[in-house]
């Protein structure tokens, strides 16, 4: 589960919001009263995972959220017996969303209650404009969900796993070759009492470390793609071009690993000591000529 430390709804999900009035909770969603209910029984339903709007929901999460909304709606009808019920889900500040954690409002309604009008009178577009808008939206309608079968998804996951395995194998090869090269260069430096040989070994280790961190970066990206496909998110069928998760990486056009890749347990503890040994050896040989 992914949460945001600054999100008030994530605090409710985590159980760290002392003022929260929680109506319902399970391993997927939480239903609770807002701090300032619009009407008696006004309830919010949110997914556990922090997603800003409806675009971030997986199909499984959307199913769970819809099921919870239906359950809470039935509870409100039975519990406070309203004359009507608004179910409202807003996305973005322009749509009056004030907390960037997707949520669904269930607002019980009575005649002459304190809620105002929601919809303006009249149509926003004339008939011709509506026809053009319809065509525009139909062209943008995603088709991936309707065309991907369970067998397609399994095959897609198999392809992604093959790439992940290849990245892992390449990483192991980088470590093996770096040990061979540093053994040769460091051994030559000691045998010939040549500090330059040790520095060449340091340079080789740095290059292999950079390659290995790049393999790790790509492996993480494909693991994220694997998770998306496994969750049932809308992904281009058989896509093998994942977007790397870090905005820092995107700014640098994905050419270089991120700092988190270099400091990973698979990189820093392996190449860091080898670099220090080489630098120490070069320093020792330089000053003991």
TrEMBL record:
GO terms for biological process: methylation. GO terms for molecular function: methyltransferase activity. Its EC number is 2.1.1.-. The chain crosses the membrane at residues 194-211, 265-287. A motif (Histidine triad motif) lies at residues 101-105. Gene3D superfamilies: HIT-like. It comes from the Bacteria. Coiled coil: none annotated. Residues 8-116 form the HIT domain. Keywords: Membrane, Methyltransferase, Transferase, Transmembrane, Transmembrane helix. PROSITE patterns: HIT_2. This is HIT family protein. It comes from Kineococcus mangrovi. The lineage of its organism: Bacteria, Bacillati, Actinomycetota, Actinomycetes, Kineosporiales.
């Amino acid at each position: 589960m992914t949460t945001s430390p600054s999100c008030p709804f994530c605090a409710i999900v985590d159980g760290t919001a002392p003022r929260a009035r929680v109506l319902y909770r399970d391993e997927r969603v939480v239903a609770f009263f807002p701090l300032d209910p619009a009407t008696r029984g006004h309830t919010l339903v949110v997914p556990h995972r922090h997603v800003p709007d409806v675009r971030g929901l997986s199909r499984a999460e959307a199913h769970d959220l819809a099921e919870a909304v239906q359950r809470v709606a039935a509870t409100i009808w039975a519990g406070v017996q309203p004359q009507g019920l608004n179910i409202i889900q807003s996305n973005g500040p322009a749509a009056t969303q004030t907390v960037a954690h997707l949520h669904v409002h269930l607002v019980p309604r009575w005649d002459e209650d304190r809620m105002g009008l929601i919809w303006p009178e009249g149509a926003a577009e004339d008939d011709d404009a509506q026809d053009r808008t319809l065509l525009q939206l139909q062209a943008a309608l995603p088709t991936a969900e309707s065309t991907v079968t369970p067998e397609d998804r399994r095959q897609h996951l198999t392809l992604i796993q093959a790439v992940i395995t290849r990245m892992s194998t390449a990483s192991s090869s980088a470590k093996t070759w770096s040990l061979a090269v540093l053994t040769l260069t460091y051994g030559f430096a000691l045998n010939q009492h040549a500090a330059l040989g040790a520095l060449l070994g340091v340079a080789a280790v740095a290059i292999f470390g950079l390659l290995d961190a790049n393999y790790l970066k790509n492996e993480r990206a494909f693991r994220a793609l694997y998770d998306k496909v496994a969750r049932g998110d809308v992904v281009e069928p058989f896509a093998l071009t994942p977007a790397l998760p870090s905005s820092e990486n995107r700014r640098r056009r994905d050419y270089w690993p991120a700092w988190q890749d270099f400091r990973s347990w698979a990189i820093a503890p392996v190449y860091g000591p080898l670099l220090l040994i080489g630098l120490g050896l070069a320093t020792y040989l330089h000053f003991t000529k």
